[in-house]
Structures are given as structure tokens and as C-alpha cells.
Amino acid sequence: MYRQLVAVCLIALMGASGVYGSCKATVSSFSTQDATILTQLAHVAELTLQCSNSAQPSLFAEFPCGKVVPVAKVGDSKYQVSWVEDIKQGSSGNVQVRLFDEDGYANVRKAQRDGDKVSSVKSLLDITVPTKSAYKGPWVKAEILAAFLVGGVAYFAFTTKSKVQA
């Protein structure tokens, strides 16, 4: 009887604290810097995850658009996730990314199947990824500037010619 009570208490304690305990992440990011000939901007977030019990779980990331993707493990406690967005929709700022472990991902898939809100599923960790907008080219194209310059020179030449002939 005593062993059963201890086992139930341990299971309840593990369930309350989570399998991975508390996790913290440090994030570094990269965004496409020059988009003059591109149609989409790429963003990459690299994070170092430190859990209280030294676990290294498989992770899945959910973006604000609702898309859920696997997170690549690139080293000891280092993970990387990337996404793309159209240039017209891309802007600088912070992107909130929710991270799930395998159990959390199963709950996300279940919520999607049942038509429930994914936001009601508890994430393992929420991170903020800073993104930068990309250079999209000069405000005035060089061809237009050259055309106006040629037009100005032609106007000056014709007006000067007509003054000389008069």
C-alpha cells in the first residue's frame, strides 16, 4: 500500500513539473539582407536550449501563421529552425515562436484534427526571434534616372540651338 502511494505521488510530481523540467533558451538569428532579386526572405533562428534535467528533446516550432515545423538539432543543446516569407509581407520586428516537445506536438496534431485552437496547447517554451527587413533596392531605378538625365540634356541642347539660330 505504501509503495503504491509513493508511486502515485512520484507520477503526479513528474506530471506537474513536466518531463523536461524548466527550460531556457538563448536565441541568435539571421535574416536575408539583400532582396533586390529575390521573391522570398529567409529567416534562421539558432537556439541553445538548457533544461533543468539536462534533457535534449526533439522539438517542433509553431509560427504565428499557424505552421508547425520540426526543429533541426545541430549540436549539443543547439537547435536551428528556419522559415521563409514573401518580400511584401516581410518586415522587421520580433516573431513569437512556440516550441513543443514530442508530446506537445502530438497534442497540437490532436487539436488540429479536432478543430480546436492550437493556442490552447501548452508549449514547452516560447521564444522571441528578432528579424530584420532586407534591402529591396534604391527608391529610384538607375534606368529612370538616366532617362530623365538624357531628356534634360536633349531639352537644353534644343533650346540652346533654337536661341543660336534665332
Automatic annotation (TrEMBL):
Signal sequence coordinates: 1-21
Record-linked Pfam families: TRAP-delta (PF05404)
UniProt-annotated location(s): Endoplasmic reticulum membrane
Top-level taxon of origin: Eukaryota
GO cellular component terms, semicolon-separated: endoplasmic reticulum membrane
Membrane topology: Single-pass type I membrane protein
Keyword vocabulary terms for this entry: Disulfide bond, Endoplasmic reticulum, Isopeptide bond, Membrane, Signal, Transmembrane, Transmembrane helix, Ubl conjugation
InterPro entries, sorted: TRAP-delta
PANTHER family attached to this UniProt entry: TRANSLOCON-ASSOCIATED PROTEIN SUBUNIT DELTA (PTHR12731:SF1), TRANSLOCON-ASSOCIATED PROTEIN, DELTA SUBUNIT (PTHR12731)
Family according to the record: Belongs to the TRAP-delta family.
Record's subunit section: Heterotetramer of TRAP-alpha, TRAP-beta, TRAP-delta and TRAP-gamma.
Function comment: TRAP proteins are part of a complex whose function is to bind calcium to the ER membrane and thereby regulate the retention of ER resident proteins.
Protein name: Translocon-associated protein subunit delta
Upper lineage: Eukaryota, Metazoa, Ecdysozoa, Arthropoda, Hexapoda
